[in-house]
Every structure is written in structure tokens, then in C-alpha cells.
Amino acid sequence: MYNKKSVYALNKHDAEAIVYPSAEGETVRLTRQDFNSDAEFMFWKKWSDQDYHAEDNADVREARHTIPIDLIPDRMLSVPGMEQQMLLSLDRFERGKLCAEAIRMIRQIVTELQYRRMWLYYVEGLTQQEIAAHESVGQQRISVSLTAAKKRIKKIFSLPKK
Fold it and tell me: Among candidates 149, 138, 147, which has minimal Cα distance to 114?
């Protein structure tokens, strides 16, 4: 997503000047004659090229990670009413209580080592290899430990079959 009218493009393609926009929006050119020496001009020309390039890259990254507001559906931009917000808040509170209770029960079901490994894997997002390296054990030991913990949890939390 290269913008040929960007300050970076204008500055890069004009090798005999440093190009930048003024506060009024006009394009300003500083040439070699505006500096005391060629070395001073070259120093600032190189700096401006690098600075504008970094700025242009940041703009491109931002553009790739944003969505224009006109592409967002209207229903996503609407603000829920106070009653709906209170119900959502209450629902989040209830789910939080259920999650806390589930975690308390899991801590009672699995060993402390299994719980720590599960926390690192599922909550912290570490890989089994990273956990194994941290604990100075093989990855297979971590895999077996996580599998055993999951089996114990499924056994306790599974609903009885009809």
C-alpha cells in the first residue's frame, strides 16, 4: 500500500532536496544551498529518508489493522440501553462467579503441578515446549500431565448419561 503522494515518496524521489509539508499544507524543499556543506545536507537527507520511511511503515501497519467506519454495520455502532447494560453486567458477574467456582473445583481435582501446567498452557498461552524448558523436563512429560488433568476434569464435570 505504497502512497506515491506521501511525504516519504516525495522526499525519496527528490534526491536533490529534503521535502516536507509546511503547517499551511504547502510542500517545502530544502536544497544543498540551504545548508553549510554537502556533508550536512547528506546527513539530514539520509535522516529524513529514514524518518519518513519509518513513519510511512507505521501508517501502513495502522491501515492494515483498522476498518473504515463506513464498513462497520450500524447495529455494531449503537449503544445498548441502560437496562440492557445492567443485564449484561449482571450476566458477566454471574459467569465470573461460575468460573471462579469451576477453578476452585479444578484445583481440588488436579495436582498442584498439573494445575500450574494447565494455567501456563491455557491461560498464559505458553507452548508445551516452553513449559518443558522452564521446568527442565521433556515435552512429553508436560503433554502426559495435561492429558491426565483433562481426563480427571472431564470425569468430574461430565453429565451422567441417560
Answer: 149
Q: Using the 8-state DSSP alphabet, how is residue 134 labeled?
A: H
> Dihedral of the CA atoms 8, 9, 11, 15 (nearest 10)?
140
- 89 grid coordinates: 453486567
24, amino acid identity: E
Partner residues linked to 77 by β-bridges = none
Q: Per the structure block, which three cell numbers stand in for 58? A: 507505521
- Given the C-alpha cell 539520509, which residue does it identify? 46
83-127 pLDDT, tens per residue? Answer: 888 998 999 999 999 999 989 999 999 999 999 999 999 999 999
59 CB-contact burial (10 Å; exposed 0-12 / middle 13-18 / buried 19+): middle
CA 16 to chain centre: 40
What span, in angstroms and rounded, lies between the C-alpha atoms of 114 and 104?
14
